[in-house]
Specification:
The chain is mostly beta strands and about 240 residues long. The protein has one domain (about 40-235): Sandwich (Jelly Rolls). The chain has one helix spanning about 5-20, and strands at about 45, 55, 65-70, 70-75, 80-85, 90-95, 110-115, 120-125, 160-165, 170, 175-180, 180-185, 190-195, 210, 225-235. Strands 1, 3, 4, 6, 9, 12, 13 and 15 form an eight-stranded antiparallel beta sheet that branches. It has a five-stranded antiparallel beta sheet with strand order 2-5-14-7-8, with no helix packed on it. The longest helix is centred in the first third of the chain and has 16 residues, at about 5-20. It is globular, with a radius of gyration of 21 Å. The two termini are about 35 Å apart. The structure holds magnesium ion. The site of magnesium ion has 8 residues, from strand 7 and strand 8.
Length: about 240
């Protein structure tokens, strides 16, 4: 900034201060931000610890994951689980705990996923000293965008995703008019910076959050994934 611009900016700030600006315009809504284990006051709680009544199978049957000790426990064979809640644009928070499966490697280690709109997978994987293809690592937008860094904690430790998602906009013929966008913090570290989300299997603008049961292939290893404190806040278009 030139000296002249800096001077003008300082004068404008001084003038605003002298006018004594009052809080007379529209104010942002007040939100209790919550804290550890507590969702913001305007959030939709998807799993709060007590029960899994907000979740179902693909066919709409009750979820086979179990609520236990404030956690949602999902074992191999339970199948993917879907929120009954549907969303478009949202801030989402998911905490997960991947088991240690030292006898496995790569994608066969503790593997799940948080699928936005039930189809765009943010990979949940034990990526602690467990190399795999980069766009399949923990925090990847699977098959599309590798995480910027590997911010994984050790298996058995609680980790978090904080997601900002803008859903794609669909054209009348079912193609994507505007791609979705994803920003993701893994354990508070930025790993996806406003990346485009390409549609596959057609364009959808709304859907559930899905948690993956990574099985359905030959001899899947037995995995016990744990989740807690899952919520979303709807965002405007
Ligand atoms: Mg996965």
């Amino acid at each position: 900034m030139t000296k002249k611009l800096a001077l003008l900016a300082a004068l404008a700030a001084a003038a605003a201060f002298a006018q004594g600006r009052k809080p007379d315009g529209p104010q942002p809504p007040v939100v209790d931000p919550g804290g550890a284990g507590r969702a913001p006051s305007d959030a939709v709680v998807l799993f709060g610890g007590a029960d899994v009544s907000g979740w179902e199978t693909r066919d709409g049957a009750p979820s086979k994951c179990e609520a236990s000790g404030g956690e949602m426990v999902c074992r191999t064979g339970a199948g993917h689980v879907y929120t009954k809640e549907r969303f478009r644009n949202a801030q989402l928070h998911v905490e997960f705990n991947v088991p240690l499966m030292a006898d496995q490697s790569g994608q066969r280690r503790g593997n799940s996923g948080a699928y936005l709109l039930g189809r765009y997978e943010i990979q949940i994987l034990d990526s602690w000293e467990n190399p795999t293809y980069a766009d399949g690592a923990c925090g990847a937008l699977y098959g599309q965008s590798a995480p910027l860094v590997n911010a994984s904690r050790k298996p058995g430790e609680w980790q978090s995703f904080d997601i900002v998602f803008h859903a794609p906009k669909c054209a009348a013929d079912g193609s994507v008019a505007t791609p979705g966008r994803l920003t993701l913090f893994h354990n508070g570290v930025l790993v996806q910076d406003n990346v485009p989300v390409s549609a596959k299997r057609g364009c959808v603008e709304e859907g559930p959050l899905m948690l993956q049961d990574h099985s359905g292939f030959k001899n899947p290893p037995k995995t016990e994934m744990r989740f807690r404190n899952i919520w979303l806040r709807r965002l405007p278009d």
